[in-house]
Design a protein that fits this description.
By secondary structure, the chain is mainly beta. The chain has helices spanning 2-21, 123-126, 189-194, 362-365, and strands at residues 23-25, 32-38, 42-48, 57-62, 68-74, 82-84, 92-95, 104-110, 117-122, 138-145, 149-158, 163-172, 178-188, 201-206, 209-218, 221-229, 235-242, 251-253, 270-271, 274-278, 281-288, 291-297, 303-310, 320-326, 329-335, 340-345, 351-357, 380-383, 386-390, 402-406. The two termini are 38 Å apart. Keywords: Signal.
Amino acid sequence: MKKLKILTIFLVFCSGISIAQEISITPKKLPYYKLYEWPGKGVIVAGKDFKGNTLQQEITLVSASGETKWQEQYMPQVENPYPIYSEHSDYLYFLDQLQPDNGKIFYNQTNLSGYIRKGSIYFPPVFRSVSDIDYSSCELIDINNATDDLIFHFRLKDKKNKQYQDVLVFLNHYSLKTFIAKVPAVFPFDVVEKGDKSLLYFAGSKADENYFVHTTVKDKKEGFDILIFDKKGAFSGSRFLLSPDAAIELSDRKAFFPSGAYYNPATVFSARGQLFFMENEWYLSSRKGTALSVWKQDDNDAFQLFGSYEVKTKKNPGHAVGLTKINGNLLVTVSSDLEQTGFVLSEKGETVASHEWGEQQQYSENPSGLLRENSGSTFWLLFDDGWRKAGKIEFSEELQSLTFEKE
C-alpha cells in the first residue's frame, strides 16, 4: 500500500509537469484569426466574428511565462483595425484610420494590464496653436508608438517658400492629452534634392525623449542632426553625430514594427544612412552599392563597424533597411528589388542566422522568428522555458484553442 501511495504521488507529480509544459488558450467569445508578437511583452492573439455580424474584436495577451494575462473585447468602427506598436512602448493601439477622416482618427488603446480605452483625435483644433500652419495643407506621413506618446508626423509642402515644414502631434499614453510641436527646422526643396539634407524621420525614444533625425552637413562634415522632443512635444535640444563614411549612398528606412508608414509602401524616408535608437544605443545602417554596413556608436560618439551584408539585387542597388534588438541580438531586415532578407547579428557582430522570403511581412508580426534559421512560416516565440511554436490558426466559426508547442 505504501509503494502504491508513493507511485500515485509520483504519477500526479509527472502529470503536473506535463500540464505545465503545455500552453494553450481558448477564445472567450470570438474565434482567433491573427497573432502579433509584442516585443518584450509576449504575444497578442486577436479574434473577430467569423460571419462579420459585429465589428467587435477580442484580444488575448500571453506572457513569456505562458500565462494568459487577460482576454478583453473592444469595438472598433472597421473590420480590420490597424495595430500600431513598437519595441519602445508598453502601450498598444488599434487605429480605425491611418489618415484623418473629416479631421479625426479613432483608436482603441490597451496596456500591459489589459485596460482598454477608446478615443479619438480631432486634429484641426490641435493645429490652432501653430497658427501659421494650415492643417488642411498638411499630409500625415507616419504614426509612431514611442515610449510616452503616440506621435503623428505631419508634413507641409510649402510651395510658396519652396520648403518642407514638419509638425508633430503627441498623444500622451497616460493622460490621452494631445500636444503639438512645430519642428524648428525647415527643409528647402533644392537642398533636399541635392542630397545635402534628408527629410525628417523618427529614430526611436526613451522616457521623456523622442528622437527625430535628418542627415545634413555642418562645418563641411556630413552627419546626423538629432532633434529631441519631450513627452509634451517641447523641443529640448539637438545633437550632431558625425557620419563614419562620407561616401554613404541613399537608402530607405523600413519600419520593423507596424507604424503608419509601414502600411503605406508609397511613404519613403530616404537618407544617406539610417539611424536607429534602441535600448539606449545608437545604430546606423549605411549603403555603398549592394554592400550594407551596420555601425554601432561607441563611448566617444563615434560609429564603429558592427557587421556587413551583401544585398542581392537585380538592377537597382538601392534598398530599405529596418533594425531592432531582441535578446541581445540585432535583427536586420533588408528589402531590395529582388527579395526581402532578414539576418541576425550577435552581440559581437557575427551573423548567426539569415532568411529569405518573398512578399511576406512575417518579421513584423514575429520578429523572434528571425532568430531561428529556416523558420519558414512557423510562428516562433521564446518563452521562459524555451522556444515554442504556435499552432496554425484555422479561422472558423468554432472557438478553437491555440496551443504553443515546446520545441
